[in-house]
Amino acid sequence: MNPGTGQQHPIGLYLKIWGLLFVLSTLSYLVDYFHFQGLLRWGLIIVFMLLKAGLIVAVFMHMAWERMALVYAILLPPLCLLVLVGLMFAEAGHTLLTRLLFFH
């Protein structure tokens, strides 16, 4: 391999990913079209959003072909933030219930 050239990926892979992203976007649109409500609606929207983001990061940002140390360095901090947001969500519910119990 020449030092100036990088690894080439087949165009078919990118076309398949574009097709899959189109299907996921269509499914995301259909969630609103069929008037899903409540947790089902938001759950489906978030699942489709995470799937699309994962595909984009893995293929178009070439994370699928990087070293694991680099993948961990990029993906671990946002995952830690998500855990902290989840803990804050749980704490907020506890705080709200405590305030409703003692101040009303």
What keyword list fits this structure?
104 residues
Short description:
With 104 residues, the protein is an all-alpha fold.
List the helices and strands and how they pair.
Elements: H1 11-33, H2 38-60, H3 68-103
Describe the structure.
This protein is mainly α and 104 residues long. The chain is 79% helix and 0% strand. The chain has three helices and no strands. Helix 1 (11-33) packs antiparallel against helix 2. The protein is flat and about 70 Å long. The termini are far apart. The relative contact order is 0.07.
Helix coverage percent of residues?
Answer: over 70%
Amino-to-carboxy terminus distance? 73 Å
Strand content: under 5%
SS summary, helix count = 3
For the biggest sheet, the summary is: none
Derived structural class: mainly alpha
Please state the average pLDDT score: 90
> In angstroms, what is the radius of gyration?
20 Å
Uncertain residue segments:
none
N to C succession of SSEs: HHH
Morphology call: flat
Overall strand count: 0
